[in-house]
Amino acid sequence: MDYIQLNNGVKMPILGFGVYQITDLEECEKAVSEAIDVGYRLIDTAQAYSNETAVGNAIKKSGIPRKEFFITTKLWISNSGYENAKKSLDESLENLQTDYIDLVLIHQPFGDYYGTYRALEDYYKKGKIKAIGVSNFYPDRLIDLLSFNEIVPAVNQVETHPFNQQIEAHGIMEKYGVQINSWAPFCEGMDNIFENEVLKEIGEKYDKTVAQVILRWLIQRSVVVIPKSVHKERIEENFDVFDFELSEEDMETIKSLDCGESKFFSHYDPEIVEWFMTMK
Ligand SMILES: NC(=O)c1ccc[n+]([C@@H]2O[C@H](COP(=O)([O-])OP(=O)(O)OC[C@H]3O[C@@H](n4cnc5c(N)ncnc54)[C@H](OP(=O)(O)O)[C@@H]3O)[C@@H](O)[C@H]2O)c1
């Protein structure tokens, strides 16, 4: 496993396992247990996924020392604000059955996220969180937050895949020492990504699948990746990306797939913001 060193010295695996949309707790525990068997040590969950307990169970039952894992969770909008955030962090610690969380992200740039950030800073100083960061904070929100707080976010998790490569936003994160973490590396399978001819052709050269090419391309851009799957063979496939290297030419070719905008939604669209406000 390769690691990235965050701006506070904490080491984060460059490849992890995401559990968004695995809402059935038994299925989630099983998938995380399989991922752990394969070798994943970074698990990415969130309060909003309602599966922190399943993640905690799988980690506990693995028998592997807690310090070998890197657990990320995210604080939801309805838990924003200083007091609410602290209460919800205590709940996350309990659900995950752990004394500390490796990384806590503010899930969305909405609500009283300044109050939330101060709660994260407090828990960080107490050692209950080893690194703090944000998610879906595009350059304007990111620069604003880091300009008026003591601790620079260690990570910003944003939609990043071949069709939305975040080239400019990544540059700004690098400027401020914020590690980029991709969500939806496979664009959740949209736009027939696994059948994309450009990616397939590149994969054939290395005897690798489209999924492996995408993960390798992100890793070579120093992007932390957290692919999700509930299928053991895919969980294995997505982990098997450290025995080849894409040429500069192939990296450039993949660059040409960038559409420069989200395939999901815009955080600047009023209707989308209204939709976020309805989510508990
Ligand atoms: N911060 C945020 O706002 C945010 C938003 C979205 C996601 N995330 C995080 O990012 C993680 C990854 O994103 P995601 O789950 O949305 O999408 P994703 O990882 O881009 O795609 C997952 C989809 O790809 C399929 N898949 C996985 N590996 C495959 C392979 N090797 N071949 C073919 N199909 C494959 C999965 O199917 P099966 O499961 O059926 O195998 C699933 O349908 C999430 O789990 C979550 O932890 C964060």
TrEMBL record:
Keyword Cell cycle assigned to the entry: answer is: no
Signal peptide positions on this chain: none
Known EC number(s)?
Answer: 1.-.-.-
Statement: the UniProt record of this protein carries the keyword Magnesium: no
Coiled-coil residue windows: none
Q: Which UniProt keywords apply?
A: NADP, Oxidoreductase
Q: Which GO terms describe its molecular function?
A: oxidoreductase activity, acting on the CH-OH group of donors, NAD or NADP as acceptor
Family designation? Belongs to the aldo/keto reductase family.
Entry protein name:
Putative oxidoreductase
**Organism source for this protein?**
Methanobrevibacter woesei
